[in-house]
Amino acid sequence: MSSSAVCDETDVQEVPYPYALELDPRACRLEMKWPDLQAAVPYKVLRQSCRCSVCESVRRALDDVPPVDAGVTLLKIELLGSMGVQLFFSDGHERGIYPWTYLRRIADGRAAEGVDDFPQALMKGWKDE
């Protein structure tokens, strides 16, 4: 007995990863580019948005965004294939994995809110997930 799967266009989702990631050390931002979106996210926002267990514990204990030094920089990005990226920050933090879909949510929020604002809800944790 054989089995087969039929796939049509409605089954295929868009690729969630950007076609370009660029560090902008002068502006302290990570620039991310998808075919339909470009966003520049400050390093501090990315650091505050970390989903590792340590950051989640701090976030839940404070019921707020973890405190991060204003001068934190992003030193390195390590690609984790189809999963996402690992970000290495100047404060020594390198535990968080940023899935592509999560980076897209951050980028969508950044584009919607403008350059100077960012929805704090995206950094406040994952109680609903």
From TrEMBL:
Species annotation: Oxalicibacterium flavum
Metal-binding as UniProt keyword: yes
Record keyword Amino-acid biosynthesis present: no
Entry-linked InterPro entries: GBBH-like_N, GBBH-like_N_sf
Entry protein name: Gamma-butyrobetaine hydroxylase-like N-terminal domain-containing protein
UniProt entry keywords in alphabetical sequence: Iron, Metal-binding
Domain (Gamma-butyrobetaine hydroxylase-like N-terminal) ranges: 24-104
GO molecular function: metal ion binding
